[in-house]
Every structure is written in C-alpha cells, then in structure tokens.
Amino acid sequence: MRILIWRCSTINKNVNLNEGIRQREIRLVGEEESRIVNTRDALELAREQELDLVMISPTATPPVCKIMDYNKFLYEQSKKEKENRKNQKFVDIKEIRLSPTIEENDIEIKANNAKKFLSNENKVKVSIRFRGRQNIYTGQGTKVFDIFISKLGDIGMIEKPAKLEGNNMIMILAPKKH
C-alpha cells in the first residue's frame, strides 16, 4: 500500500497546495473542462488520483486550481531553467585605459586590441584617467576618444557615451549587430 504525505506548507512560497488552499470554492481546471467546485470536493478528487491540488492563479475570482503531480511539475520546471541557463550567452566587459596625452601610434595599438575584443562579441570599457592639472583639460580626453572611435571603424558602436566620473572619463562600446 502506498502512503501519501499531504503537504500543507508550500515548497514554493507563491504556490498553495492541498490543505493550504483556504477558499471555499475554486475553479478546477482540467484537460477538457473547467468547473467551479467546492475545495473539499477538489481535494477528494486529488486524493483519489494520488495527486496534488495546486493553486495556479490566486488572484482570479474564484481562484484557479489544477490537479497535478507537484513534484514532477517542479522537476520539469527546474529542467527548463537549466536548459535556458545553458543557452544564455554571457558578455564580458574588457577594459582599455588611455591617457589624455597618448600618442597616435599608441592609440592605434589600443584600437587593435579593442577590435579583437569586439570581434569576440565582448563589450569594451574605454577609460581615461586625469591626474593633477590634467583635470582642467577634459576636452583633450574627448578628442582622444574621437580619434579612438575613428580607428575602430564600423566594428563597434557607442553603447554609453563618454562621461566624466570623478577623475575618470568612461565610455562603453558594444559590438555591432550583423
């Protein structure tokens, strides 16, 4: 003989199960039909089938419930979540630091590194640090950014324009969608 343990508490905080459902009448949804029944009758039907009575939509009037194997439902839901996480693509942010007094050839080298990062579908954070008296000449930083972007060509696009944050001017570039 199979012994069932009826759970009054909820595994998922948002879902009411079995005796945890406190309403008098519920809408019982089946595969073919839906009908309004007394909660006790629905619990009896679930016990006869050795399944759980699960509240799907508590905000509806009357609340919507379904008879199902709740553990199997949770297992299938966790499998779907794992599959979705497996298919996700994570984007790294690579950083390139420049200075306001950088030479043209050095900008070329840094731009080539940025092209590699962007071709690998990574975002690039370009930053310029101003030290001491350089804080007065933030316009020089925007000129350096303009030269840097012109060296990239059409590989990347500006996701977040240059913005001065304290002693740093930061800009974020993203790869262009093809």
From TrEMBL:
Domain Translation initiation factor 3 N-terminal: residue ranges: 18-84
Highest taxon listed in the record's lineage: Bacteria
Keywords attached to this entry: Cytoplasm, Initiation factor, Protein biosynthesis
Main location class: cytoplasm
Single GO molecular function: ribosome binding
GO biological process, one term: ribosome disassembly
Subcellular location: Cytoplasm
GO cellular component, one term: cytosol
A Pfam family hit: IF3_N
Bilayer-spanning residue ranges: none
Positions of the Translation initiation factor 3 C-terminal domain: 91-176
SUPFAM superfamilies xrefs: Translation initiation factor IF3, C-terminal domain (SSF55200), Translation initiation factor IF3, N-terminal domain (SSF54364)
InterPro entries (alphabetical): T_IF-3_C_sf (IPR036788), T_IF-3_N_sf (IPR036787), Translation_initiation_fac3_CS (IPR019813), Translation_initiation_fac_3 (IPR001288), Translation_initiation_fac_3_C (IPR019815), Translation_initiation_fac_3_N (IPR019814)
PANTHER family in UniProt: TRANSLATION INITIATION FACTOR IF-3, TRANSLATION INITIATION FACTOR IF-3, MITOCHONDRIAL
Subunit structure: Monomer.
Family: Belongs to the IF-3 family.
HAMAP family assigned: IF_3
Job of this protein: IF-3 binds to the 30S ribosomal subunit and shifts the equilibrium between 70S ribosomes and their 50S and 30S subunits in favor of the free subunits, thus enhancing the availability of 30S subunits on which protein synthesis initiation begins.
Protein known as: Translation initiation factor IF-3
Organism classification: Bacteria, Bacillati, Bacillota, Clostridia, Eubacteriales
